[in-house]
Amino acid sequence: MKIYTVFVEPKTSGNIGFLARTMKNFGLKKLVLINPCKLENDAYYQAMHARELVQDAMIYDTLEEFIEDKKITSIVGTTGTAGGSYNIKRIPITPDELGKTMHVNGNIALLFGREGDGLNNQEIEQCDILVTIPTSDEYPIMNITHAAAIIFYEIFKNKKSYPIDDMDISSYDDKKVLTNLTNEIISKLDYPEHKEKQVKIIVKRIIGRAFIAGRESQTLRGTLKRINTRIKNKTHEE
Amino acid sequence: MKIYTVFVEPKTSGNIGFLARTMKNFGLKKLVLINPCKLENDAYYQAMHARELVQDAMIYDTLEEFIEDKKITSIVGTTGTAGGSYNIKRIPITPDELGKTMHVNGNIALLFGREGDGLNNQEIEQCDILVTIPTSDEYPIMNITHAAAIIFYEIFKNKKSYPIDDMDISSYDDKKVLTNLTNEIISKLDYPEHKEKQVKIIVKRIIGRAFIAGRESQTLRGTLKRINTRIKNKTHEE
């Protein structure tokens, strides 16, 4: 799969830089500019360590020339609020849904429209897929490069498929072991039956919620075993 | 749930504006600035239709003053790449995971660090939760407002899809009581000193991270007291 990030008629040179930086943050390399404004210094400045993406940007006069030249197989367009001025027949998907469907071969173009105006109706008509970011109704218009960051993030996220390698969150089985251990302890505390049940549920939920790491889980197991061994069982006493 | 977006020592006025705009895009309103640079015109310009967020920004000299003043119950920090310079003992979660756990009441602070340097170790130590955006290894350093957009998006996305339940989150003091109780128990387990310390740290962090509700905290207190009373103290045995 080749992904081209296409900025259609950018008006502000700095935004080209921001876009390049965000692309590189998520492993995207191919920047295409359609009829862009003049590239000033701030394009390179805002790109930071992604300035080579700006230097290597492919520039075309029209979208059609690019689509033909790079043999694009799928065009993904990004739009602002759904139900805006464009043809309502098109139902946009979310970035999340896009990320999950991007496991395809081919040459894919991700289109971002001009600042302020976005993509025009003709450009939107050419898109195979439209993506819209769910935003607050009160102020739905995002800055183009911030919108792009979210879309790149979702594509990257699904490509990597979680979790971050060195973050080994405890598994379902790990959690089960912890819950069994806490249940054993709670059973020794002579709660009335309904209360015992309630305590077990609460502790189970907290274990589920706490994002316990694999190595933390190891230590906790040891601690719970110690507690369990040490705890006096009232019935034995009497 | 009240969410405060806290920009710690911003250096560039325009970034405050970008942050405000992105906040409003995702329905966030409370902007806090800790010891910020001078707010120039570009803060208002980049905010676009969110300039009232910049106007109403709460400004504090130190993070501590803000935390105390607004009675913050949970602090969420954002950091760059996992395994970076900060203390490796802390395991960051993903924005996705953050969004899914944010169904709680309470006063939550979302911390974003200074451009370039991020949050310092002392600030990170204070966080109950750390979030890291999964990025390309080749260039993991994101612009701060683009990183913020992704985190706001994940919070908004999850808020929309699941109704926030009215769980009232336990306070800072509640958590302290729980930590004291667990510490008392752990002290009785005859761990070697360094191991005892480590176990206490792990348990404290899990309590911080788990978004324990007020009523859950009540029950847990009772359970921990029972365990503490019941536990055999080895020295007494011998």
Condensed summary:
Chains A, B: GO terms for molecular function: RNA binding; RNA methyltransferase activity. The structure is a homodimer of 238-residue chains. Chain A is α/β, with parallel strands linked by helices.
Taking all Cα atoms into account, the compactness measure Rg of chain A is 26 Å
Per DSSP E runs of 2 or more residues, the count of β-strands of chain A stands at: 6
**Could you say what the CATH architecture of the largest domain in chain A is?**
3-Layer(aba) Sandwich
Report the end-to-end length of chain A measured between terminal Cα atoms.
72 Å
Dominant shape of chain A? elongated
Mean pLDDT of chain A: 86
> What order do the SSEs of chain A take from the amino end to the carboxyl end, as H and E?
EHEHHEHEHEHEHHHHH
β-strand percent of chain A reads 5-15%
Strand neighbour order, sheet with most strands of chain A: 3-2-1-5-4-6
Say what the CATH topology of the largest domain in chain A is. Answer: Alpha/beta knot
- Specify which chain pair forms the largest interface: A-B, 64 and 65 residues
Classified in CATH, the superfamily of the largest domain in chain A is SPOUT methyltransferase, trefoil knot domain
What about the largest sheet of chain A?
6 strands, parallel
Overall tally of structural domains of chain A: 2
Q: What is the helix tally of chain A?
A: 11
Structural class of chain A comes to alpha/beta
Protein name (chains A, B): RNA methyltransferase
GO molecular function, one term (chains A, B): RNA binding
Domain tRNA/rRNA methyltransferase SpoU type (chains A, B): 3-153
Family (chains A, B): Belongs to the class IV-like SAM-binding methyltransferase superfamily. RNA methyltransferase TrmH family.
